[in-house]
Amino acid sequence: MTPSQLSQVRAEFPSLASGFVFLDNAGGSQVLGRVADRIRDYLTTTSVQLGASYAVSQAASEKVLAARRAIAEMVNAVHDEEIVMGGSTTGLMFQFTSALSYVIQPGDEIIVTETDHEANIGGWKRLERFGAVVKMWKVNRETLELDLAELDKLLSPRTKWVAMTWASNVLGTVNPVAEVAKRVHAVGGRLAVDAVAYAPHRLVDVQASGADIVVFSFYKVFGPHYALLWGRHELLKSLPGINHFFIGSDVLPYKLQPGNVNFELSHGCAGIADYLVDMGTSFGASGSRRERMQHAFDVFARHEDVLAERLLSWLATKTNIRVIGRPEVRDGDRMPTISFVVHGRRSEDIVRAVDPHGIGIRFGDFYARHLCEALGINAAHGGVVRVSVAHYNSMQEIDRLISALESAIQ
Prior knowledge:
Radius of gyration: 21 Å
Number of strands: 13
Number of helices: 15
Strand order of the largest sheet: 2-8-7-6-5-3-4
Low-confidence stretches: none
Mean pLDDT: 97
Number of domains: 2
Order of helices and strands: HEHHEHEHEHEHEHEEHHHEEHEEHHEH
Helix content: 40-55%
CATH topology of the largest domain: Aspartate Aminotransferase, domain 2
Oligomer: single chain
Structural class: alpha/beta
CATH architecture of the largest domain: 3-Layer(aba) Sandwich
C-alpha cells in the first residue's frame, strides 16, 4: 500500500486520529466512520418497527433488507435468505446448535478442533446431552498444525459435523477448509467454519470455502458489535425454527433469528461492503462489486504481510522469545495475528509494560482455552502476548511497538 493509499484508508477510521496505536484488532477492529454514520442515520430517521403500512416503516424495512443483500453479496451467498444475523459469533453458534438439538440422534458424531475459539466448540459440546459424541481434533504439538491425517482417523460414517476455524485467533494459521470440506462431505458430514479471525484479512467466499455454515463477527471487520451466520439454503430450510411457534419453518432467516435482527446495526454493516468497493475502485480495480472488494483485500493483505514480517523478524532475533505459530509469512498462509511468550516471564507483565506507551496489545488465551492449556502456555505464562495487525496500521506503529517491547522484555 502506498503512503497515499494508507492515508486514504486511515481517514476512514475516526479513532485513528487520536494517536493511540491499535494493535488488538483481533479482539475488535476500529469502526469505519461511514458505518457509524449509517447507524446514526437509521436511528434518527427510521427508528420504527418494520412491516407496517406507513411510509417510514416501509423505508426502514427496505434499509434492513438492503443491508442483508449487501452482506450476502460480500460473502458470495447465493440467496440473501442464507444470511442469519445476531449479536455475536458465540450467540449465533448457540442458536444454530440449539436448532440442531431437535434433530441430533444418539451416537451422531461431531468433531471439533483443539485450536478453535470456544465459540465453535461450546455449542457443539452442549449437544452431548442429546446423545451426540464429540471428538477432539488435536493440534500437532511440534508443528502447531491441524494434520489432515489425524482428521481422517476421526471421520466415520457417523460423522454429522466437523467444526473448525478458518484461521486461528492465536496461531494466525490459515487452515485448508476447502480440503477439509471435501473429506467431511465424502463421509456424509457437514462443515461449520468460524471465520472470525479470517474475515478481517481476506474476502470471505462461502462458495469457495466448501463449508455448510460460515460465521464471523462484524466488530472484527470494521463494523459494530454484530455478527452473521451464513448457511446453505437447503440446510437452513431443513432445520427446525427457534423463533415463535407461529413463525413457519420456511420463513428464512427469521425462523433462526428470535427477536429479529438489530435494525440499525444491520443497516450500518452495509457500510463495510461499500467501503471495500470504494477502496478497490480507488486502488485501480474495475468490474463487479465483489471484484473490487477482492482487489481491496489483495492490497490490504500485501500491506499486512509486510507489517507482520517486520514484527516476526524482530521477534526471531530474541533468544528468550517463542512465537506461538508459524515464524514467518509464506504465501498468504498466515494472518497478521502474532502470539508469543517470553521465557521466564508472565505475559501480563509484558503487556502492562507496553500500556504506558499508548499502544493497545493484549494477553491471555483469547477463549482458545483448549489450545493454550494443551501447550502449557496458560500454566507457564498466563497465556500469550498477542499483537494483531489490521490493514490501517502503519510501519511507524509497528516500529513504535518494537521499541516498547525492547524495554518490556529486558
